[in-house]
Design a protein that fits this description.
Elements lengths: L5 E4 L3 E6 L3 H8 L8 E7 L5 E11 L2 E6 L4 H12 L5 E5 L3 E5 L5 E3 L6 E5 L9 H10 L21 H4 L10 H10 L4 E9 L9 E4 L2 E12 L2 E9 L8 E3 L2 E5 L2
Amino acid sequence: MAIATGVARRPRAYVRVQGPDAEDFLQRMLSNDVSAETCDALLLTPKARVIAPLRVWRRGPDDFLLLTEPELGEVVRAALLRARFAAKCEVDPEEHTSSIVFGGTEGIPTADYGMPAVEVLDDPAEPTMEDDELEMLRITAGTPRFGREIDDRVLPAEAGLVERAVSFTKGCFPGQEPIARLHYRGHANRGLRVLTWEGAELPEYDAPVSYGGKEVGRVTSAARDGDRIVGLAYVRVGVPSDAEVAVGTVTARPLN
């Protein structure tokens, strides 16, 4: 689907971290370098399980806004407060609305949808796209979402999050050691693939993916795109990247 312009609502929760120690505190807590104006980052457990994916917007020298999924705002706030100790910064919720503006240039850049877009806060413009259109673009772009592709069973490397949300040069953070060990000494046993197949009925979450008569993965998200279905699935790395696989009784093939 080629979309040059359009506006869609993006449900979010927002947490402000503000104060003279805000940058140092977030550098110690999050997986990416927050010194830039914007970045993707992860809040992780010591074992590198994802507590929350974040988009970090630095609004000023000591003022950061963390954008996360709507169900994770209080989770993020509580986790940061528990770790704050003597850091001189406040951690508080904020109320906003987010819109994804395709073809826009003023806002927080996002690569989640496979085409140029920005996330704009408190934009009064009415949406021109339905929720399922935005979801289809996310799936087609191979972007993982918390509660679908990201949960406590998944390592960041399996979801493709290391490349976009982890810095190995900024200093220590919770979960750094297992992420670095896998990155430098091993490899993930499975990864996300975008699949497509003909049909009208969407598969259930965790529907099995098979190859050569053996179960090799599971479907995590799916959406209709005209007469076909596009899905995201975890598939074992031993399955050839161009292989056709079975989703239930239907043959699926790589989108690209």
